[in-house]
From TrEMBL:
<keyword id="KW-0378">Hydrolase</keyword>
<keyword id="KW-0732">Signal</keyword>
<feature type="signal peptide">
    <location>
        <begin position="1"/>
        <end position="18"/>
    </location>
</feature>
<dbReference type="InterPro" id="IPR036866">
    <property type="entry name" value="RibonucZ/Hydroxyglut_hydro"/>
</dbReference>
<dbReference type="GO" id="GO:0016787">
    <property type="term" value="F:hydrolase activity"/>
</dbReference>
<feature type="domain" description="Metallo-beta-lactamase">
    <location>
        <begin position="84"/>
        <end position="254"/>
    </location>
</feature>
<dbReference type="InterPro" id="IPR001279">
    <property type="entry name" value="Metallo-B-lactamas"/>
</dbReference>
<protein>
    <submittedName>
        <fullName>Metallo-hydrolase/oxidoreductase</fullName>
    </submittedName>
</protein>
<dbReference type="InterPro" id="IPR050855">
    <property type="entry name" value="NDM-1-like"/>
</dbReference>
<dbReference type="Pfam" id="PF00753">
    <property type="entry name" value="Lactamase_B"/>
</dbReference>
Length: 352
C-alpha cells in the first residue's frame, strides 16, 4: 500500500504530463542499460572511482599460498583470501569451523591442517548463501556435525535439486544454541531476519570474538544493495544487536581485515545517513515533475516507465547527498552508492 500511495503521489506531482507529445523527447535520454543503471554512460571498466582510504587496508596475503591465517588467541583463528573470511576454533577434542567459503576452498583445509592434526568435528553455517558455505562438502570425510538455524535448514531443504556442496544441517535451533567441544565454547543466537532469514550472531566469549556475516564491512561501504539483504529494518537493527556483545574483534565474512566496535559504529552512522537522505529525497527532495516529465511524455500510458524515472530521480538524489559525506571515510562509498540508495528507497516504501 505504501508503494501504491507513493506512485499516486508522483503522478499527481507530474500533473498533466501524461498527455504530453512524444516528439518533444530525445530518444537517447531514455535508453536503459539494465534494471539499476538506468541512464546511458560509460561501462564500469571505464569509470574512475574515488581513491580508497587507508581504512580498507588488508592483511598481507601470501601470493604463493593465496590465504592468510591469523591467530586470535585461545585457540581461535581466522582465515581470509582478501575477499572472504571465516573462523575456526581448535579445542582439545576437535575443531569447530564457522562457514566454508568456496573462494577459499581447499586452502581452508590447508590452513586448519597446518595448525592442528585434530579433525573437524563441528561445522556451523552462518546462513544459507553458497558464497559462504558452498565449500562445506570439503569436510565430508570427517563427518562433522553441521549446526544451523532452523530457517537455514528449511531454505536449503527447499532447493530443487538440493545442493550437494551444502549438506543439510544435522542440528538446528530457534533462538539460542551453545556449541561446546572440549575446552572451546561458541555461542549462537538468532534475532530475526536481517541479511537472510536464519543469519546468526556468533560469539566466542573466552576470546571476545564476534562473528556476524554480511552485515558490517570493516572499513568499506556496504556491498551492492546493502549486501543484497532480504530485510533492511532487521539488517539495520543488527548493528545495535551486535554492539550488545562484549567483543574486541569481529569476523565479518568479507574484506581482508578484521573489524572492531568502531567499524560497527561507523557503518551504523553511514546507514543512518543513507536512511535520512532517502527519506528526504522521497519527501520532496527533488523535482519530480522535471525528473519524470520526459519519460512520461515519451511513454504515454506506461506507469512502469514513469515509476522507473521517479526511482532514478529519488535514488540519485539520495546517493549523491550521502556519497558526498562519506568519500574518504569508508572505502568505495561511490561504487555502489546508487544501488545502496535504491535498496533503501525500496525498503522505505515497502518495509515500513
Amino acid at each position: 500500500m505504501q508503494l501504491i500511495r507513493m506512485f499516486s503521489a508522483l503522478l499527481l506531482a507530474a500533473g498533466g504530463l501524461a498527455s504530453g507529445h512524444p516528439h518533444a523527447h530525445d530518444e537517447h535520454e531514455v535508453v536503459a542499460r539494465d534494471s539499476i543503471k538506468i541512464a546511458p554512460g560509460p561501462s564500469d571498466t571505464q569509470i574512475q572511482f574515488a581513491p580508497l582510504p587507508s581504512t580498507v587496508d588488508s592483511v598481507p596475503i601470501n601470493a604463493t599460498l593465496g590465504y592468510f591465517v591469523g591467530d586470535l588467541g585461545g585457540g581461535v583463528y581466522w582465515v581470509t583470501d582478501g575477499t572472504y573470511s571465516n573462523m575456526f576454533l581448535v579445542s582439545t577434542h576437535g575443531v569447530i569451523v564457522v562457514d566454508a567459503p568456496p573462494t577459499i576452498g581447499h586452502k581452508l583445509l590447508y590452513a586448519i591442517g597446518n595448525t592442528t592434526r585434530l579433525p573437524v568435528t563441528h561445522l556451523v553455517y552462518s546462513h544459507l548463501h553458497a558464497d559462504h558455505i558452498g565449500g562445506a562438502s570439503l569436510f565430508n570425510a570427517t563427518h562433522p556435525t553441521i549446526i544451523a538455524h532452523a530457517e537455514t535448514l528449511s531454505l536449503l531443504a527447499s532447493l530443487s535439486p538440493r545442493d550437494p556442496l551444502r549438506p543439510l544441517p544435522h542440528v538446528t535451533f530457534e533462538n539460542n544454541y551453545t556449541v561446546r567441544v572440549g575446552n572451546q565454547t561458541l555461542e549462537l543466537s538468532y534475532h530475526g531476519p536481517n541479511h537472510t532469514p536464519g543469519n546468526l550472531f556468533m560469539y566466542a566469549p573466552a576470546q571476545r570474538v564476534a562473528l556476524l556475516i554480511d552485515v558490517v564491512f570493516p572499513g568499506w561501504a556496504p556491498f551492492s544493495e546493502l549486501a543484497i539483504s532480504c530485510f533492511i529494518p532487521g539488517w539495520t537493527a543488527a548493528h545495535d544487536v551486535l554492539l550488545t556483545f562484549d567483543f574486541d574483534v569481529l569476523v565479518a565474512g568479507h574484506v581482508g581485515r578484521l573489524g572492531t566496535k568502531h567499524d560497527v559504529l561507523l557503518q551504523k552512522k553511514y546507514i543512518e545517513d543513507l536512511h535520512d537522505s532517502c527519506v528526504s529525497a522521497i519527501n520532496g527532495g527533488f523535482d519530480v515533475t522535471a525528473a519524470i516529465g520526459p519519460t512520461v511524455a515519451a511513454n504515454p500510458g506506461n506507469p512502469w516507465a514513469e515509476f522507473k524515472a521517479y526511482f532514478r530521480g529519488a535514488v540519485q538524489t539520495c546517493a549523491d547527498n550521502t556519497t558526498s559525506r562519506w568519500l574518504g571515510v569508508l572505502g568505495a562509498a561511490d561504487v555502489f552508492a546508487f544501488e545502496n540508495a535504491y535498496r533503501m528507497v525500496i525498503s522505505l516504501m515497502e518495509d515500513v
